[in-house]
What does this fold into?
Amino acid sequence: MNRRTFLAAAPAAAIASKEALSASLTPRSVDVYGVQLYTLREELAADLDRTLALVAEIGYREVEFAGLYGRTPREMRAILDGLGLRAASSHHGVNEVRESWGRALESAQELGQSLIVVPGIPGSERSSEGLRRIADDFTRAGHAAVEAGLRFGYHNHSWEFEPLPDGTIPMDLLLERTDADVVDWQMDIFWTVDGGADPAAYMERTAGRISSIHLKDRTAAGAMVDVGDGVIDFAPLIALAERQGLRHAFVEHDQPSDAIDSIRRSLRHLKSISERP
It folds into this structure.
């Protein structure tokens, strides 16, 4: 699917989207945590098989990809199956949405994913006009994802909560302009707090759209730390997200000093939360 074909395609894929949204609203408990493998990018580049084996040994059962490290989707699926891991999601850039979305969806299908996510927007398109174009592209991408049996989402950073010169809040524009039936939000709780926004308030406003979250903690001074080492109270946020349709929760740390220890510590804290009465 090239850009011309993709952008010209009518969004007729809504045939199953309302049923999918209804299913996503069913309250559930996230008893299986995943990890965004960007956290482990250096370790994966050095020894992919050993690193994924450690991920499984620590206790994770789902992973989210940010690249396949030279493996084909079929090869990666075989590695994951052998370790008892599942590829729940993967990150793909805006350029892929516009130029090679068909290939991205095929890769996600082959890996066995249920979700596919765009992790950011180029700085050159962070104007009201640019974001409207992006939002329309996202809606078309979401319809194509639904046709492929997947959910589509967008992952935020902090800039989306900072007003543009015309007063527009980028995250609000994206949420309002995109089709809620086919475009989910992967809320990164750290970046939402870092942008000065209230994650709980946004969860209440966007019930049913936050199908996945990223979990990383923040000190009072703004430093990124492992889950449990900062000031964010994750227990009520996870519980609220679960009541409103959360399907996946991924641990992440952008710059860990020891990536393996980081994901181990974060999972230990999350399990302690789930065990509280």
